[in-house]
Amino acid sequence: MARIKSYLPQLVGIRSVGANLIGDYQGTLLARFEVRPTLVDQIRDSQEVDEKLSAELEKL
Question: What is the pLDDT of residues 6-53, one digit of tens each?
């Protein structure tokens, strides 16, 4: 238990960035991150309102 207390600030930091933490009885800790494709989302959102792109697509 003392080991967990010494790592508590780091564990809180890891959780704050959205990682899922899984521990086992042997003291092993696994962090799993889920990354959202924000750049792709931003590109798609920008394409929807781009007048030049819309005009070119209408030509097709």
Answer: 777 877 777 777 777 777 777 777 777 776 788 888 989 999 999 998
- pLDDT recorded at residue 24: 76
User: Which amino acid is residue 45, in one-letter code?
Assistant: D
Which residue(s) pair with 23 in the sheet? 29
Residue 34 CB contacts under 8 Å (≥ 6 apart), including other chains: 18, 20
* Cβ atoms within 10 Å of 29's Cβ, excluding its own: 14
What is the C-alpha to C-alpha distance for residues 49 and 2, in angstroms, rounded to an integer? 55
The tokens describing 3, both together, are 């080991």
DSSP lists the bridge partners of residue 22 as 30
